[in-house]
């Protein structure tokens, strides 16, 4: 499987964020190709590439673009989700800081495909340096004439809320409201930002687009599995020798990523568990890491690829303590709109906390599992289902460790 | 602060109108204008919310709902510097708790509080997405990585 640096090829250059460096390394050569293509042909090429969304949901990108109603005559918006916030994930921060023109070129192409004249880039408020770098690149792109000729980019900063990474929560926030997700349908492609058809794509997803046009859909598809093309950027952290970002095929296995690329396990050196796709992905035990990291490979393994944030835990890590940390996060970030999520995230945090404090009761574990399962699938957005992943998997896979903390 | 003393300059009002013009519906500019308000007035008081609401023709209640939803708006005065330690999973695995305890002891405040001299507000926050260099924290606009107690002391030394 390939570990060719495609998205990350310029990351080693100190000037990688500049227009000069981007042009020197083949930048803005896909855009003229796209200009010579019919919009539908661009979408078809992306469909054939098997590019799937890399923000978390893994939806086929070309298919999403195809949902824009053909008969619509008003504005269409392209929205870039740069509200990176999934615990364990940091790839978009690198892309914004080190290759912002790759995002701009991808946006030009995507906007042509969906016939959009205006795009919004929603960057989380805490990302100050990535925002500065991206704004600098947008300015360069205007000065050079790539932007402002039928396509404009508005850079919008978030104000601190994980839920705004959910695409309809993001749209609410962009509209000047609290970031409450919206009931679907209608999906954003039909009625999105400001009531208009809208495509929301992740930063990394769009950064792939110029390479697909330059090197062809067949090449991109060949880098991955049957159902997902390309490479992606894995964010690896936790108890590994070399934490960092690693670009590799979506067909690489979790074992290869942890041991071959990230150098293996620290702590006591023995692997206990890995979270494969950001904190919302169900945890895998040490004996479950011979799985490919593509969307379908991890789904078949009972977890998810998510945002490819890989968190490694050695045997000395307390899983109950990890659950408290994760449960605190979901309790804090629940937007409060749906009752099952608002209430369950708070109660599960409290219950997991008291177990770790030595005040748990023997019913607590089953109660957490019961509360978690009852709420799953009942809410407006996927946030609560994302919380349920760790609640259930941590307890089911490491139950004895929890039970050992409960007084008899 | 009485409402009458709370106002943007003429240049800022021009910027407000420019921001409002960037969105199909001017209220899309609410978050960036609240950022301006916080930067100008120090924090987003109820008076500031009312003032901003007036610039958008929105009810103060709508603006209050927005301000209270997001973590980056301060509803009371904050320190000259904000130190926000990540306490999420990867930072937890790298010892974030020790860093928070060290900061509490050094600053003499609890999480969520500001030092008596108004120098530093200490926060403990969710994932800032710099897990590869955990434990980490945000100090005003900067990310500070690979924290150890001595490294934290050196950073605090630089905050006036």
Essential attributes:
heterodimer, A: 408 residues, alpha/beta, five-stranded mixed β-sheet, four-stranded parallel β-sheet, 18 helices, 9 strands, 12% strand, globular, B: 160 residues, alpha+beta, four-stranded mixed β-sheet, 44% helix, elongated
Topology readout:
The complex is a heterodimer of chains A (408) and B (160).
Chain A (H helix, E strand, L loop, with lengths): L18 H6 L5 H6 L3 H10 L12 H5 L11 E6 L8 H8 L1 H15 L3 E6 L4 H16 L8 E6 L9 H8 L23 E5 H5 L1 H7 L1 H6 L8 E8 L5 E6 L4 H8 L9 E5 L8 E2 L9 H6 L8 E6 L4 H15 L5 H18 L7 H12 L7 H15 L1 H5 L5
Parallel strand pairs in A: 1-2, 1-4, 2-3, 5-9
Antiparallel strand pairs in A: 5-6, 7-8, 7-9
Helix pairs in contact in A: 3-6, 5-7, 14-15, 14-17, 15-16, 15-17, 16-17
Chain B lengths: L9 H12 L8 H12 L4 H11 L3 H10 L11 E6 L2 H5 L2 H12 L12 E6 L11 E3 L2 E3 L4 H9 L3
Parallel strand pairs in B: 1-2
Antiparallel strand pairs in B: 1-3, 3-4
Would you kindly provide a written description of the structure presented here, covering whatever features stand out?
The complex is a heterodimer of chains A (408) and B (160). Chain A has 408 residues and is α/β, with parallel strands linked by helices. Helix content of chain A is 42%, strand content 12%. Chain A has a five-stranded mixed beta sheet with strand order 6-5-9-7-8, covered by helices on one side. A four-stranded parallel beta sheet of chain A has the order 3-2-1-4, sandwiched between helices. In chain A, α5 (91-98) runs parallel beside α7. The longest helix of chain A has 18 residues, at 339-356. The termini of chain A are far apart. Chain B is α+β, with helices and mostly antiparallel strands and 160 residues long. Chain B has seven helices and four strands; from the N terminus they run ααααβααβββα. Chain B has helices spanning 10-21, 30-41, 46-56, 60-69, 89-93, 96-107, 149-157; strands at 81-86, 120-125, 137-139, 142-144. In chain B, strands 2-1-3-4 form a four-stranded mixed beta sheet, with helices on one face. Chain B is elongated. The two termini of chain B are 26 Å apart.
């Amino acid at each position: 499987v390939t570990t060719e640096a495609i998205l990350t090829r310029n990351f080693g250059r100190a000037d990688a964020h500049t227009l000069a460096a981007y042009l020197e390394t083949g930048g803005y050569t896909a855009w003229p190709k796209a200009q010579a293509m019919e919009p539908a042909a661009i979408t078809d090429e992306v469909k054939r590439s098997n590019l799937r969304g890399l923000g978390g949901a893994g939806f086929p990108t070309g298919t999403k673009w195809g949902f824009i109603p053909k008969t619509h005559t008003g504005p269409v918006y392209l929205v870039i989700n740069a509200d990176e916030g999934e615990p364990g994930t940091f790839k978009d921060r690198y892309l914004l800081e080190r290759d912002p023109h790759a995002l701009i070129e991808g946006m030009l192409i995507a906007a042509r495909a969906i016939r959009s004249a205006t795009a919004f880039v929603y960057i989380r408020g805490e990302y100050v340096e990535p925002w500065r770098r991206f704004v600098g690149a947008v300015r360069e792109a205007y000065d050079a004439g790539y932007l402002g000729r039928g396509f404009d980019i508005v850079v919008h900063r978030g104000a601190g809320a994980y839920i705004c990474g959910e695409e309809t929560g993001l749209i609410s926030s962009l509209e000047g409201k609290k970031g409450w997700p919206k009931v679907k349908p209608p999906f954003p492609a039909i009625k999105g930002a400001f009531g208009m058809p809208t495509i929301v794509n992740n930063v990394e997803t769009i950064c792939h687009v110029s390479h697909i046009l330059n090197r062809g859909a067949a090449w991109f598809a060949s880098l991955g599995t049957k159902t997902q093309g390309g490479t992606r950027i894995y964010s690896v952290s936790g108890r590994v020798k070399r934490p960092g970002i690693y670009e590799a095929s979506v067909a690489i296995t979790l074992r290869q990523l942890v041991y071959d690329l990230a150098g293996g396990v620290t702590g006591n050196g023995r692997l206990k568990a890995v979270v494969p796709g950001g904190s919302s992905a169900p945890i895998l035990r040490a004996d479950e890491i011979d799985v490919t990291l593509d969307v379908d490979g991890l789904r078949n393994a009972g977890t998810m690829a998510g945002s490819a944030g890989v968190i490694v835990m050695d045997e000395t890590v307390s899983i109950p303590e990890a659950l408290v940390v994760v449960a605190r996060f979901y309790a804090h970030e629940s937007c409060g709109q749906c009752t099952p999520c608002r209430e369950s995230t708070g109660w599960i945090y409290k219950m997991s906390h008291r177990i770790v404090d030595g005040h748990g009761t023997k019913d607590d574990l089953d109660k957490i599992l019961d509360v978690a399962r009852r709420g799953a699938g009942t809410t407006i957005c996927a946030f609560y289902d994302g919380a349920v992943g760790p609640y259930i998997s941590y307890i089911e896979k490491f139950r004895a460790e929890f039970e050992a903390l409960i007084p008899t | 602060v009485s409402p009458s003393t709370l106002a943007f300059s003429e240049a800022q009002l021009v910027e407000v109108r420019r921001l409002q013009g960037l969105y199909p519906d001017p209220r899309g500019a609410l978050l960036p204008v609240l950022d301006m308000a916080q930067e100008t007035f120090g924090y987003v008081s109820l008076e500031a919310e009312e003032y901003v609401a007036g610039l958008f023709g929105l009810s103060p209640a709508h603006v209050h709902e927005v301000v209270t939803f997001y973590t980056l708006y301060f509803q009371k005065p904050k320190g000259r510097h904000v130190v926000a330690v990540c306490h999420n999973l990867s930072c937890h695995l790298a010892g974030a708790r020790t860093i928070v305890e060290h900061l509490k002891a050094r600053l003499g405040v609890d999480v969520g509080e500001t030092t008596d001299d108004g120098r530093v507000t200490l926060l403990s926050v969710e994932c800032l997405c710099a897990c590869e260099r955990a434990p980490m924290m945000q100090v005003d606009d900067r990310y500070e990585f690979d924290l150890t107690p001595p490294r934290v002391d050196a950073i605090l030394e630089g905050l006036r």
